[in-house]
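This is your field. Pick holes in the following sequence-structure pair:
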Amino acid sequence: MANEEDDPIIQEIDVFLARSLLEKLYLFQYPIRPASMTYDDITHLSAKIKPKQQKVELEMAIDTLNPNYCRSKGEQIALNVDGTCTDETSTYSSKLMDKQTFCSSQAASNVSRYAAAVYKKGELHLTPLHGILQLRPSFTYLDKADAKHREREAANEGGDSSQDEAEDDVKQITVRFSRPETEQARQRRVQSYEFLQKRQAEEHWVHLHYYGLKDSRSEHERQYLFSQGHGLAENTELIKSPSEYLMMLMPPSVEEENDKPMAPSNVLSMAQLRTLPLADQIKILMKNVKVMPFANLMSLLGSGTDSTAVLRCVQQVALLVQGNWVVKSDVLYPKDTSSPHSGVPAEVLCRGRDFVMWKFTQDRWVVRKEVAAVTKLCPEDVKDFLEHMSVARINKGWEFMLPYDEDFVKKHPDIVQRQHMLWMGIQAKLEKVYNLLKEHLAPKKQEAHSAHPLLVSGEQRVNMAKAKAKQNYGQLEKEFQRQKAEMKSNDTSAKTDVPNIRIKEEPVGAEEPMDTSAFEGLNNRLVNGLHPAEGSPEPVNGHLPGGCIDHVAQELKAFVSSTFKKQFVLTLSELKRLFNLHLASLPPGHTLFSGISDKMLQDMVLDTGCKQILVPFPPQTAASPDELKVYALWEAGDTYDQHRQVLLEIFSRNYRVRRNVIQSQLSQECGEDLNKQEVDRVLKVSFCSFAGL
């Protein structure tokens, strides 16, 4: 009552129902008008209608004198449609696109609750609408242009010789007799899209005459929008109660009520769902969700539902897989249906899907190729099976989408046992149909672990990792001491057996020595970096004497300089490979055999004018640490020094760069426009060894 007092009635208006244009009044919805067309003073050249289809086609003139009209495009469109010659069949006789065709489509299937209203002198007159049509531009003139283009091409290609024409006149005719059409085939043909299109095309157009807005005939017809008489005999329908009046104004749609399915299919209305029997509710839910834990099923059915009755019904439409309920295959693929992808009958689809479900009872992971190889079904059908109950994991396969429901298994052991017996029967059928091998039948060893996945928090994982590290530390320390003792004993025996051989030792904890195991086959006489024929200067506490250090540094610097002048960019791994090849080519007793560590090699690279390029490789890269260390010669003294430095700066920001970005950056930094060939030459000269990274 308080709300009604705050919103007082300002005016009462009499409403009248006009019947003069009943079942004759249409509402046209025009598109957003182009700048060259105004609907206030528009010129309709022609109009026609198909009454049964309620389809209208209007032809409207375009104002070609409007400053917003593009005359060149209009001439081009007319030339494409009609060609150079003009005749009666030409679409644009003025050689200019001066008109536009609009075709209608129904905006609403049920317009019984819509009306056109006219307000005049305190009275509101309503006329029910018979249809609402949306007008959209028609581009059939483009099809006409394509057809003429094909005709011109056929005319140019045809008629090469009189002999060909004579041969074309003689054709072989095959006579076939069609079978009598059955009733089912006739119904399918009548309901087909092609038949309906043919029926619509057969209806003839009815040409109309258009009257403008200010025409006297339009003024006369507009008077029919008003009620012709205000007496009681003319408006007895409006002498009703408010509820009856609203019911007449907005009647319920009989067609929509009849067209509503008895059970929801795609979008479920919970209110409508709960009006159905319990068995139908469960079947509809399982058919739409496909995989569901029992607890979720009970929550969807509402409070007060008997769990025993639910268990009895769910076993009729679903099977138990890893403690969760999966809808049966025959529910998804009923009898007399087929695959939308391959046309395979429902019986074959059910067997293939049962095989996938049975595989998930054995393990949480299923490989798609294995399923396709056993079932012999097309990849699309197999993918549908897997998407019903699993999720794809990269480089692993398909994992069952729900975790193992251990609570349900513990609470209902009798149901679990009964479902196990059902699966044993299904397995026996699958063995006969698919001739399954032992590897298909035997569950994987990790089944016990995969069937009961553990949920571990992040903090628990950190604590477990710390405890495992502490536990392994002692074992690793003992193993390291044992290996160290063995190395010392081996060193002693080696010195006794071969007194000329010296093995370099570095302090523990420093960087690891260079790994040359991959290149041992280069020189079978090379033992631990030394030739057995001659010795090398003996290191003192892991370091060489002063005079020998200078000589080794000079040799190492010469190798590094010559290497980087040939290949301007190298990774540490590639540099070590080249250094080992260099060692294999040296004569016995060379100073470089005294032992070169990774640190000495890297320091020498930096001393020779090279720089380390911190390339931002992706975290998931499989490259080794030595492959991630990139060194480049900064100044080589040639014409490409500036280009090379710009390229190195680009790759220090991103490990993968497009060629056009490199070209624009080089042109911007170097102040010269480089074409594609010059950019390729710069990349080849500067990064010939960097391309594989």
